[in-house]
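Worked Example 4.2. Consider the chain below.
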Amino acid sequence: MVEEKLAKIVGARNVMRGESELNDYAKNFSFVNAFRPRCIVKAETAGQIEKIVKLANDTATPLVPVSSGPPHFRGDTVPGTGGAVVVDLSGMKKITRVDRTNRVAMFEPGVTYRELMAAVAKEGMRLNLPLLPRKNKAVVGHLLEREPPVMPKYHWDIGDPLSCLEIIFGNGEMFRTGAAAGPGSLEDQWAAGGAQKEAAGPSSASWYRIIQGAQGTMGIVTWASIRCELLPSLEEPFLVGSDNLDKIMEMVHWLIRLRLVNECLVMNNCDLAVIMAKKFPEDYQIIKDSLPTWALFCNIAGYEYLPEKRVSGQIKDMKAAARRAGLETGQALGKVIASELLAAVQCPSREPYWKLRYKGACHDIFFLSLYDKLPEFIRIMQDAADEAGYPASDLGIYLQPVVQGTSCHCEFNLFYNPDNAGDITRVKELSNSVTRKLLNAGAFFSRPYGESAGMIINRDAATAAALKKVKLITDPNNIMNPGKLCF
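Applying the procedure from the previous section yields the following structure tokens:
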């Protein structure tokens, strides 16, 4: 049996077949069809992963790599077919290297944000975090999913802050991307001053772009390196509110273009109230009622040299940008205090996870857009919600400028009650219908998940064909998370 052979690789205690454990991986907060895995295997080393992948090829066993703890939301960790083995990487916790000189850290796939943040902080560095990740979310998971970081000033490429990674492809071969590809071993590269920071390569290819967003369909990552930033010595956060999104986005444009701020994000009053409320529904409604429709949060930072002078000058420039857009800045907005919001966004989410606090569950619809298209996409979403009977007042909207502000991650958060069958049906049908409408209007779904992934990817036949050719090279027996994307 496959389970017995797996036990010889990782030890019997690391092969789990309990009813409740298997059920935990059979479904999640997504709407993908439930498939229970045949077992869960906890890998502890890259050597074990190589042997697991080889065994999977020999026995035609599907593998589903998972690095983060529950809850899961997007369906990529639910097997797409029967007889799959979940490869749990959460126990691989080694932080291999933290390099202050080159501002880079290397770590294994089970390392969470809180663990890595503590390690890099000892060297005077910080991470460019996504918005309030779950406390047990693996850093590698977010890097591979291309979650947008909250500091667009340091977001140079859509793949950032990922640097290099090592992957065991579905064909069983180990491969390293970027500067880590060689020459020589990692130790040889460190001795020569290498830092595994450059993401592109080897040669003229950028393999990390194929591995990111692949939802585990290419292979299993055994370590990654991430670009870090310096810890500020002085910070001044601000909030700007308006019912006019165009004014808010004009100010965002100037803040990022002039490189004035670190954290910079926009959300509607629903999302901001969900994040800041301590009690539901009491605190939530009070906070929400105190806010305008849109809130811009930004943070100005000073570092080792003349921090007060730097912050003072940039505050003046920020206020000038606000006046240009017809807005006013402040260190509070309604019942929300900017310093408290800063403390929140610079850490993983407190428990319960912020998207579960309001109603117990949340479904996200997200894509990339240019600034001037945002009002149209928001109108399409709101109209579709009205048609579906989903209350517009419960619709959360998060707008995150990315890649130096050249475009924007637009995310709609559909909060719902997971114990209400009507809520589930309504949100599922709304998601399917509005995704098609947004796609037809020009929304770029760069990270499609679940039922909509095939529809989105197959619209571009050339891209789908190219991906399938790469898949044949890296995973010829289609053992890696089959049923996802266009595979």
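Residues 239 and 333 are 6 Å apart (CA to CA). The mean pLDDT is 96. Compare this with Example 4.1 before moving on.
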